[in-house]
Amino acid sequence: MCGIVGVVNRPEERAALNLYDALLMIQHRGQDAAGIATCDGSRLYLQKENGLVRDVFNDAEMLELKGSMGVAHCRYPTAGGASCTEAQPFYVNSPYGLVLAHNGNLTNTRQLTEELFTNDLRHLNTNSDSEVLLNVFAHELAERGRLRLVQEDVFDAVRAVHKRCHGAYAAIGMILGYGIVAFRDPNGIRPLVIGRRQDPGGFISHMVASESVALHANGYTLVRDVAPGECILIDMAGNLYSEQCAENPSLHPCVFEFVYLARPDSIIDGVSVYKARLRMGESLAEKIARVWADVDFDVVIPIPDTSRTSALPISFHLGVKYREGFIKNRYIGRTFIMPGQKERRSSIRKKLSPIPLEFDGKTVLLVDDSIVRGNTSQQIVQMAREAGAKAVYMASAAPPVRFPNVYGIDMPASYELIAHGRDESQIAKEIGADGVIYQDLDALESSVRAGNDAIGKCESSCFDGVYLTGDVTPQYLRDIEGQRNDTAKSQQQLPLPMPRRA
Q1: Cα–Cα distance for residue pair 381/360, rounded to 1 Å
Q2: Which of 82, 139, 256, 290 is the most buried (most CB within 10 A)?
Q3: Catalytic annotation on 39?
Q4: Of residues 2, 74, 245, 462, which has the active-site annotation?
């Protein structure tokens, strides 16, 4: 769930400023580290570090990021560690000089790492699957053996990447002195959109990003999504070329993007995230009215911010007052993407504070976008009771999360998921609620597909345990569980941020 951006501007316009503004718009996709790489002619300029976008780049560093073309990234770690060395974009000098930023997760990283070392004779510096993806692309590009690059070499290299790399990947690369390349895995699991802007003099600038909000902030118009398996190439003259590079592409976007990850003002795969969440609320309201017909709710209260859009139609269809019962501290990051259980627990009460008059003596229906580990829900229910609620019910706009996610969302260990092995009554008891109700998976996927009938089955593995790439074995799940569970994360020594220069 990282954020990636690439841009090619007219020669006199610096790319770094557009990339910085775009990263601010997609900061919600990753708060661990940020990086920008730009190109001036054939020279690379790179700045990356742990921290939020606003903290990683100062004025002096922005001035050093020269050139009209660049790639940027904000990191949310799922594979690899939290070291600054694993911040992106990554760079290799051969062939041509390549930079790459990646969102997603490869499922055959171990195999690829061995192949890169023994067959391709390439060296890796980190444990990041993004560096693996870059080196596979670099090797395949080098195999074309040309001194001067041509378009078909890039497309052929991406074809080979699709054959070798499994899992989820939306990637944006920069070939120094040549242009920007962007491609998406054949299942289209992670999002990637293209925007254009006609500049003075007729030059067409292009931006590629994880979400459309990054385009709008810089004056670009959303053109379309990068199709599953497609490769986009934008040269430094502003010419855009595209080619389908996968044999059997199909569109299976991650449904959790629409539930939680993406901003509501984004459009992903032709679907308005905002409208999809409204539809989620409507279908959940129908289920609540049917299952809890005997419960007399006094108020519907969303857990800010993501669940607001779903809570509104629930309030409307149930005929129950909608109230903002929690005030959010906007200086606390998204608790879901914090690296461990301890960090998440310590942040919840700092992040949310209740308004007692909205709870006192009332039967409250709390609406959240999802219930994952349950620690957030447990503390929120407790806060509602402490504020005087007579009864507290919890509704989730998503189905129960019972299985690990291996495609770029931090849900590696099934036993850390509160719904794993529990029914709704057991979950309600665990979080201290009078009742818990979940969205049905069919209704959730219908809420997304209603915006684009070209979407097949959504990638919903964390809800149904079906892994679209077909290579996720029980042993693989055990391996990632051991490497990336909260206990393993707590044992990692997190680096302190570097002191800022004046």
Answers
A1: 13
A2: 256
A3: no
A4: 2
DSSP state of 414: G
Q: Average pLDDT over the chain, rounded to whole?
A: 92
Q: In what order do the strands lie in the sheet with 167-175?
A: 90-92, 98-106, 167-175, 179-184, 230-235, 240-244
Tokens representing residue 290 in the block? 């049917």
Region for 75 from its dihedrals, namely left if φ exceeds 0, alpha if ψ lies in -120 to 50, beta otherwise: beta
User: Residues near 502 by Cβ (< 8 Å), separated by ≥ 6?
Assistant: none
Report whether 316 contacts 367 (CB < 8 A).
no
Task: Tell me the per-residue pLDDT of 347-387, one tens digit each, with 9 for 90 and over.
Answer: 788 889 999 999 999 999 999 999 999 999 999 999 999 99
Task: Encode burial over 152-183: b for 16+ CB neighbours within 10 A, e otherwise.
Answer: ebbbbbbbbbbebbbbbbbbbbbbbbbbbbbb
Question: d(Cα 3, Cα 75) in Å, to the nearest integer?
Answer: 7
pTM of whole model > 0.85? Answer: yes
Task: Report which secondary-structure segment, H or E, holds 448.
Answer: helix 441-449
Q: Which amino acid is at 248?
A: N
Backbone angles phi, psi at 128, to 5 degrees: -80, 135
Residue 94 CB burial class (10 angstroms; 0-12, 13-18, ≥19): exposed
Contacts of 226 (CB under 8 A, 6+ apart): 170, 182, 183, 184, 192, 193, 194, 208, 232
> What letter would DSSP give residue 223?
E
Question: For residues 95-129, b (16+ Cβ closer than 10 Å) or e, as one string?
Answer: bbbbbbbbbbbbbbbeebbebbeeebebebebbbb
Amino acid (1-letter code) at residue 306: T
Q: Which domains does the chain have, with CATH numbers?
A: 3-250 (3.60.20.10), 276-328+337-462 (3.40.50.2020)
The total number of residues shown for the chain amounts to 502
Position 329 pLDDT exceeds 70: yes
Instruction: Quote the CA–CA distance of 483 and 488 in Å, as a whole number.
Output: 6
> Hey, what amino acid is at 193?
V
